[in-house]
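Narrative summary of target 7.
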Amino acid sequence: MNIIGISGGFDSILEGKAGAFDLTENTRNDSAAVLLRDGEVLFAVEEERLNRIPRTNYRPVLAIERCLQAANLSLREIDKIVVYGEEKFYNFFLQRNYLANPNRYTVYATIREWIRNYLKETFNYAFDAKSIVFVKHQYAHAMSAYACSGFESALVLSLDKSEDGFSGLLPRAAGWIWKRFNPSMTQIRWSPFAGISGNVWSRQFRIQANYTGLLLQATRLSTVRLSLPPTNCCRVEATS
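Modeled conformation, tokenized:
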């Protein structure tokens, strides 16, 4: 099975800041693509190496093209395209921007349709929208850490900004079998609608408190010792 994984934004480099997602320079940056065949990485490249824009967050069409060229494949020979991020997270941005200014867009589309359209525009092939798979970004982070660790089984801790609504994750991994512990403790959730209330400070406090709880849960499940300085900044130390 041939699979292409993509990350980053979805606006064309020609659209600039007038794109559909209105992403800032620090959002969904480091666009990239990777090609896998039967679970083995064949080729991977970041879009910035090709469009020459550092930490670019434009759609990774050049990276996808280079992956295909490296394996002498066409897009029609790809079985799945895996997208970094949750589907409803992307649809939220599309819906919000369209409702804010419908005259700005010629057509309203879901993220699946959006990706399918830009792939067809670039590669002249209508990729099956049902073959586009979305992965929550915390799972992508966790898998990246586990796959490179060399451990057959491991407790994996992922902490990050909210992105697609999740700020933290604590699963136990053993090959392709992953087990998430108590969801209330091991998955920090944040809603993109929270920013509308303007209650920024309390939201940051809640997320910081949840981070502390997640780290404490990790110490009970593994051989690490957690130290909490007076500043409430968490420090994790390995024990012998």
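Residues 61 and 122 are 7 Å apart (CA to CA).
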